[in-house]
Design goal:
The protein has 3 helices and 5 strands. With about 150 residues, the chain is α+β, with helices and mostly antiparallel strands. The chain has a 5-stranded antiparallel beta sheet with strand order 3-2-1-4-5.
């Protein structure tokens, strides 16, 4: 069996999976716009610097917060749906600054039926554009390489 028959489908799965994840995150971000806002307080935050075995860096914004819905306390750590680690520090820093702009106070949007599902940022941000474009270009390049 040719190794290409294994590798190419794996790369396609990564690209298509990334596009689907980007679209799913966008839909969650847009639906969260209609969720009620709860007052919260940031208890821990920072930008973690991670290094892989090749010495390449990636950055992950971390914001942990407590908030209250109908007198009940909840804890959260989601900055925004689809916001994760990235090798471009400015994208991570931008999401972090937006999420902590009123430190230590924070406005948390939580699903009215399930407050455990919550987020700070809603709407479409540069992080999501970059993620979507990255995987779109990934698939485009893969298609060009596959078709010769």
């Amino acid at each position: 069996m040719n190794i290409e028959h294994i590798i190419v489908p794996v790369f396609w799965a990564i690209g298509v999976g990334g596009i689907i994840h980007s679209i799913w995150s966008l839909l969650l971000l847009l639906s969260a716009k209609s969720w009620p806002v709860a007052a919260g307080e940031i208890v821990s935050s920072g930008i973690d610097v991670l290094m892989d075995c090749d010495g390449d860096y990636s950055f992950k914004a971390r914001v942990e917060y407590n908030f209250w819905v109908e007198g009940r306390a909840y804890a959260g750590k989601r900055i925004g749906f689809g916001v994760g680690s990235w090798s471009i520090r400015s994208l991570v820093s931008s999401a972090y600054r937006k999420a902590t702009s009123s430190y230590p106070k924070v406005k948390v949007r939580s699903n009215p039926r399930k407050p455990e599902r919550n987020t700070i940022l809603v709407g479409f941000h540069g992080f999501h554009v970059t993620n979507f474009v990255f995987f779109w270009v990934w698939c485009l390049v893969l298609n060009m390489a596959s078709t010769g």
